[in-house]
Structures are given as C-alpha cells and as structure tokens.
Amino acid sequence: DLQICQHRAPTCCTKKMEESYQAAVRRERTQSIQALNFELKYMIVGHITAFQEAFESLLRFAENRTSSLFETAYRPMAKEAAEPVKELFTDISLYILGAETTVESAVLRFFDSLFPLVYSRLINPGITDLSEDYTECLRLTRQDINPFGHYSKNMVTELSKSLWASRMLSQALSLGIEVINTTEHAALTKECSKTLVKMQYCPHCQGLTLIRPCVGYCLNVMRGCLASVSELDAQWREYISTLEYLTNEMAASHDVEIALTGIWNSINEAILHAQLNGPQLSATVDKVCGQPKQQEGNLSSDNIVPVKEATADTRTFVMAHASLNNRRREFISYMKRSRTFYASIAERLCDGDLVMRDSSTCWNGEDVV
Q: Do the Cβ atoms of 330 and 238 come closer than 8 Å?
C-alpha cells in the first residue's frame, strides 16, 4: 500500500512511515531555509538597529541644541516653548520610521504653536490675558500673515529633501525582513513533499541508510519545489540596487546631519525676523484678533538677542556619523554579495551533507547508481 517509495524489492516501510517522512521533509526544509536566511536577516536587523540608534542620537543632539537656544536667547518663552520643540522632534522621528505624516505638517504645526509665544512674550511682552480664543486666533493668523518670512518654508524644504532617503531606507529595511520571513514559511506542495521523500527517505525503505541523493537529482527536485521562491530573483536584485542607491544618497553628504543640527538656527532666524517686523505684525493682529489686555506702561519689545551657535560636543556627533558611515559601507557590500540569494537557493540547499559529492555511488530516485 505504499504511495511514494514503491519498489520491486521487499521493503521495511509502511504507509504510516511515508506520512511521517512527509512531515519530516516539510520540517527539515523550513529549518534549512531558516538557516540560510539567518545570516542575511541578522545583517538587516543589525543595520536597522544601528540606523535607528544613530538617528535617535542625532535627533536628541538636535533637540537639546534647539532647547538651549530658547533657554539662552529667549528665556521669557523657554518654558512654554519646550512642548512644541519636543513635538517637532517626535514628529520628525515618526516620519523617519514611516508614519503617515509629512515634514511640512510637522514644521508648520511647530510654527503655529510658536507664533502666540513669540507675539505675547517678545513682540508685545505686556500682554497679560492670553486666552484660549486669542491664542487660537494668533495660531490661525500665522498662516495668513507669515510672521516668520521665508525661514519656515526653507526649513520645510531642507528637512524634506534630506530626510526622504532616511525614511525610504528605514521602510526598505523593514520590507526586506518581511520578504525573508515570508519565504521562510512558504508552504511546500503535496507533490513537492512526495518528491523530497522519494529523494531523501525512500532509500531507507530498502535498508540503504547511508546512501545520499545524486547532486543533479537533488538540484532538479529542489528547483521544482522552490520555483515560487526563486521567482523573487529579479525583484530581489532590484531591491539590493535600491538599498545601494539609498545608502549612497545618505552617505554622499552630511545632508541629514546638517539639516537636523541646523534646525535651531532656522528657528532663531525666524524669531528674529518676526521681532524685526513686530510693529507691522501687531497692527495686523490687532485688526484680526482685537487688542488683548496690556500691563500699564507696555514693556519694551526691544529685546532682540543675537545668539551664537549653542555650544555642544560636536566631536561625539562627528564620530557617531563616521561610525554609521562605516557600518553602511559594510552592510551594503554584504547585501551586494546576496544579490543571487533567491536564484541560488536550490544550489545552497543541495550543498553540504544532503548529497553525496565524493562517492561513486548515489541515489537517483529509483535505485543506487
């Protein structure tokens, strides 16, 4: 009653043993593909971790620098500005990690929150009643009167351009892991299970436990079983080329680093621009939002403080950047070597202990040859 290991000679197998063999080959194939994938997955996961750590470190550096700008140059609003600054950098981080948001919405939301503070603490420091309605009116007016000049738009342009490749790389790396995980669990067809049993276990039914499959026979069986996986070859090669392009885009210049660490300067320039145009802004705001309550003897708004670059340990930052660039180079050279990963998967599975390489006798599916 054997279905797979049918042979003229007497056999020591039963139908139930054939079913056990089918379960065994499915388990073994999954494990052997997982073993092949392990190194590749390990490299991608390691790079995702290194990339995210370096980026978080860079964001913290840029956020601390921006916070210190308010503490040193714009003390009257430093406490209230802390939350919008934190939100801005959280939004940038989420954007890099692939959230459904844009750099433009993050930056403009920040400047919407900043304008009521700049207006009431720096341009008109005598305002005492900053009600919710008045604050909301100032936020909405910001979009029409553009108090920060071209600086807010410039910041959007610079950040969008430099963060795009980082966002794409982050998404591409996650996609790579998804592809590998999916191929690991690609189900074997019933027909494939049978051909694998015939190749690996049918010799056992005749007591030939030491005979292994012939190389050519193994390759034919594996290529047939893994045809759907090896069809990924063209897309995988294209994927590696895309990774190479994105890592080169990021490493070609210090675009990301310059854009992020320059945020504090863009904000400073924007605030100075608003202060210099204070009288015109006040006149427009009074028409749109009305006049708020003022303290007697309005305080002078003549408190423009030019600020030099916030002192920070840039050496640590430069070293972190260099280290990340080295990791990028190592990673992409490894990934380039894996271009043929899916095309050669049958060859790699037939390599090693599975087949008989240095012997004159091997199993061809029907007999020992």
A: no
The rounded distance, in Å, linking the Cα atoms of 187 and 359 is: 33
State how far the Cα of 132 lies from the Cα of 303, in Å rounded to an integer.
26
Domain boundaries, the chain: 15-292+323-350
Q: How far apart are CA 339 and CA 132, in angstroms?
A: 58
C-alpha torsion sign, points 198, 204, 206, 209: positive
> In the block, which residue shows the tokens 């079913």?
19
What residues pair up with 368 in beta bridges, in sequence order? 363
Digit-by-digit pLDDT tens for the chain (369 residues) are 788 888 777 888 899 999 999 999 999 988 988 998 998 899 899 888 888 888 888 899 899 999 999 999 999 899 999 999 999 999 999 998 888 999 999 999 999 999 999 999 999 887 776 788 888 999 998 888 999 999 999 999 989 888 888 899 889 999 999 999 888 877 788 999 999 999 999 999 988 888 889 989 999 999 999 988 888 999 999 999 999 888 887 766 556 777 888 899 999 999 999 999 999 999 999 899 888 766 544 444 444 454 544 444 566 666 666 666 777 788 888 899 999 999 999 998 888 777 767 677 889 988 888
Distance CA 65, CA 56 (A): 14
Q: State pTM to two decimals.
A: 0.75
Cα separation, 196 vs 333, in Å, equals 35
Cβ contacts of 101 within 8 Å, gap of 6 or more: 91, 94, 95
Distance between CA 325 and CA 187 in Å, rounded? 39
How many other CB atoms sit within 10 Å of the CB of residue 89?
A: 20
Pair of tokens at residue 214:
């012939």
- 279-303 exposure pattern, b = at least 16 Cβ within 10 A, e = fewer: eebeeebeeebeebeeeeeeeebee
Tell me which residue of 208, 223, 188, 213 sits closest to 7, measured CA to CA.
208
Assess contact for 276 and 78: CB atoms under 8 A: no
**From CA 198, how far away is CA 103, in angstroms rounded?**
58
Q: What is the DSSP string of 19-69?
A: HHHHHHHHHHHHHHHHHHHHHHHHHHHHHHHHHHHHHHHHHHHHHHHHHHH
